Amino acid sequence: MTYRDFITSDHKVMLGKPVIKGTRLTVELILRKLGEGATHSDLMRMYPELSAESI
């Protein structure tokens, strides 16, 4: 698997920013939350549409 299995970019969704497929959650948001100390469990609890693999 590669990142392309989980990340997409479409100019119609979030102005073309890379997002987790099937969501409107930007990769930028996920990375920022991880940088702030959030764990994978925290992210999955905050955003139930995320899977552990997509993080």
In terms of topology, how is this protein built?
Layout: E1 7-8, E2 19-20, H1 27-35, H2 40-46
Antiparallel strand pairs: 1-2
Question: Could you explain the architecture of this structure?
Answer:
The protein is an alpha+beta fold and 55 residues long. It has a single domain (3-46), classed as Arc Repressor Mutant, subunit A (Orthogonal Bundle), CATH 1.10.10.10. The chain has helices spanning 27-35, 40-46; strands at residues 7-8, 19-20. The longest helix has 9 residues, at 27-35.
End-to-end C-alpha gap: 13 Å
Strand order of the largest sheet: 1-2
Q: Helix tally?
A: 2
Report the β-strand fraction as a percent range: 5-15%
Rg: 11 Å
Instruction: Just name the CATH architecture.
Output: Orthogonal Bundle
Average pLDDT metric = 95
How much helical structure, as a percent, in the residues?
A: 25-40%
CATH class: Mainly Alpha
Stated plainly, the CATH topology is called: Arc Repressor Mutant, subunit A
